[in-house]
Amino acid sequence: MISDFKGKTAVLTGAGSGFGLECARIGAQLGMHLVLVDVQQDALDKAEAEMKAAGAQVLAKKVDVSSAEQMEALAADVVQRFGAPHFVFNNAGVGSGGLVWENSVKDWEWVLGVNLWGVIHGVRLFTPLMLAAAKADPAFQGHIVNTASMAGLLTPPNMGIYNVSKHAVVSLTETLYQDLKLVSDQISASVLCPYFVPTGISQSHRNKPAELVDEKATQSQLIGQAMSDKAVSSGKVTAAEVAQKVFDAIAADRFYIFSHPKALGNVRARMEGIVNQTNPADPFLERPEIGEGLRAALRAV
Least CB-packed of 26, 85, 129, 254 within 10 Å? Predict the structure, then answer.
């Protein structure tokens, strides 16, 4: 249980928009020291100015979270400025669609690089710092929040790379939680699994690496992009509301954080299918018109 956030340090990747930005805003209100990390310089600058204006001590760094070297440099900068962080929000993520066999190697490397390797680097670099701080100070309390997705618990079609990356983040975080419980009572972990929430994720292509920009999108990728745009933009739960859920979960040491608990019915159906050894269920059972539209669009190609 963590009740006092004032003066504590939080590292937030993907801090220029979406959940990262909203968590930073709450952190600033709570009097936390903030390490803002993003790959988009203008968004990072804007976030830095806002948090400083709110009175927070800020370290802002432009970092590609998929890069081991850049993340290692970030960890060193954090220690130099604030010491070991109390909270780490491994939040940076990119979206991607398309039939799973149509994605290029570069597509796989980009999405897994940000969504999975970014979390791996955050965990491998900051957890030892936090454990050392906990060993030195019995009052130290820490928490790591990794952003996955409901796509980490489900397998919606036409977005395979994204599903793979987010399933891996759920597995990594569940294991992190168990591993931490073996060695410390002072540090815990949570996994955030949002459903469709208006953030910047459907516009991830704005930060695509230069070598991917020239790749021509396949028809399935274009269809996936359009569906993602529509679903994300129509989300009723805001990123700010989800960020508050994250802080509530940290305070309560609650592992699973859901933006849309009603979507858990789909997760239950998937899990029951696994236990009962039935073939994967129709993902569009509750919204057959979406499935029919997607099938028609793909078969018309």
Answer: 254
